[in-house]
Structure formats: C-alpha cells, structure tokens
C-alpha cells in the first residue's frame, strides 16, 4: 500500500475535476480526498495498491473532458492513511 499527495494545475476548477477524481479513485479501489485550492489548483491524496495509485496519478494528467491540465506533481504522504474517499471544502 502507498499514499501520495498530489497537486494538479491548469484549467482544473469549474470543469467537474473533483467529481471526476472521486469517481475515478473509487473505481480503482482507492481511498483519500480531493479539494479545490484558492490558488486555482486541485489537491488530492490517494491511498491504495501502488499500481492503482500510480494509474490514478497518471489519469490526472488528462482529467475530465473539459479540463486542461498543465502540471501534476506528487510526493509521498506522511499523514495518516485516509479511509473512504471524501470531497473536502476549498482551502
């Protein structure tokens, strides 16, 4: 099991990105959370089997049809492993 902290930049707000992330993550059996940031990015944490987490990070490079992703960065997550998948309020 692995957990990563991800930041997605570009045209990622107002295009259904968070809902898409939640749907995609759940379909891969992942746990975690996603939220918009006030600076226009989307932030997420994905926890699960390494191959599923890596596939989710890769999928974020495309995102939903209306998105225009310019950058996806990720790093290991040092916090507690999340349970379930949650859409958090903007921070």
TrEMBL record:
Reactions catalysed: an acyl phosphate + H2O = a carboxylate + phosphate + H(+)
**Which segments constitute the Acylphosphatase-like domain?**
3-89
Q: What residue ranges carry the coiled-coil annotation?
A: none
- Taxonomic superkingdom: Bacteria
Name the keywords, alphabetized.
Answer: Hydrolase
- On whether Hydrolase is a keyword of this UniProt record, the answer is yes
Under Gene3D superfamilies, the record lists: 3.30.70.100
Looking up InterPro entries in the UniProt record yields: Acylphosphatase, Acylphosphatase-like_dom, Acylphosphatase-like_dom_sf, Acylphosphatase_CS
Matches recorded under PANTHER family: ACYLPHOSPHATASE
Name of the protein described by the UniProt record: Acylphosphatase
Which organism's genome codes for this protein?
Answer: Devosia nitrariae
């Amino acid at each position: 099991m692995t957990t990563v902290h991800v930041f997605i930049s570009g045209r990622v707000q107002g295009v259904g990105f968070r809902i898409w992330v939640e749907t995609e993550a759940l379909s891969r059996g992942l746990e975690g959370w996603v939220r918009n940031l006030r600076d226009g990015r989307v932030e997420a944490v994905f926890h699960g089997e390494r191959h599923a987490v890596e596939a989710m990070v890769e999928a974020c490079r495309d995102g939903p049809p209306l998105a225009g992703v310019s950058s996806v960065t990720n790093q290991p997550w040092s916090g507690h492993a999340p349970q379930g998948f949650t859409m958090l309020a903007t921070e």
